Amino acid sequence: MNITWFLFPMAAAISLVWNASRYESTEVIVQRSVRMFIQIVVVMLIILLALVGLSYKI
What is the mean pLDDT of residues 22-27? Predict the structure, then answer.
């Protein structure tokens, strides 16, 4: 199994713990955790694409 697949559960855990430590309402925690998870994945994808672009034909 590729180690990259571990980034998704790690991003989910980070977003849940981060938001659970700041809010009390379960609905708010879930909503903001989903949004934060998507933001983390998008940022990681942008970084991946930048690294692939920079290392192309090295």
Answer: 96
Q: How many angstroms separate the CA atoms of 36 and 52, rounded?
A: 24
Contact 41, 33 (CB under 8 A): no
Mean pLDDT, rounded, for 27-52: 97
Q: Of all residues in the chain, what percent carry a pLDDT higher than 90?
A: 90
Q: What is the pTM of this model?
A: 0.87
Is residue 6 classed as helix, strand or coil in its secondary structure?
Answer: helix
Going by C-beta distance under 8 Å and a sequence separation of 6 or more, which residues neighbour residue 36?
A: 14, 15, 18, 19
Alpha carbon of 13 to those of 19, 36, 38: distances in Å?
10, 11, 12
Contact 16, 53 (CB under 8 A): no
